[in-house]
Fold this sequence. Notes:
The protein contains 7 helices and 3 strands. The chain is α+β, with helices and mostly antiparallel strands and 155 residues long. A hairpin with a 5-residue loop joins strand 1 (42-50) and strand 2 (56-64). The protein is flat and about 60 Å long. It is found in: Cytoplasm. It comes from Hoeflea marina.
Amino acid sequence: xxxxxxSAPSQRxxxxxxxxxxxxxxxxxxxxxxxxxxxxxxxxVTEVRMSPDLMxxxxxxxxLGVEDHAGTIAALNKHARxxxxxxxxxxxxxxxxxxxxxxxxxxxxxxxxxxxLLKSPAVARDLDHHDVATDGAEEADADAVDQGGSDETKA
Length: 155
């Protein structure tokens, strides 16, 4: 009977992904990749997701201080084989060094969008209305407890 597949990554996938992330970060910090687009860009590797067979590593990166993320991602993917060769000494415990793929990490933009939505006047109004309703319900609960009294006061 085949093992059911899970959508969550295994512990091994997470551990290897973190090792690959650290190795890629070292290569990019050292400036081993000689590319005009990458030489003037600070790149943060936020996450690396491994395929179940550990043969493909998708690195989510955020170019800092650059508006053209697509150009930076294209340059990283162009040099992916070179970067793979540079990370191999740090990953020598692995049987196979994974193929590297670089993707733009949009999670920070998503977090900012959600934060902006939560700060919008409509949501703030709804939250204030909910707080007033909740406070009223809590006061009613407290009054009910006070009216019931405890066993000590009845005796």
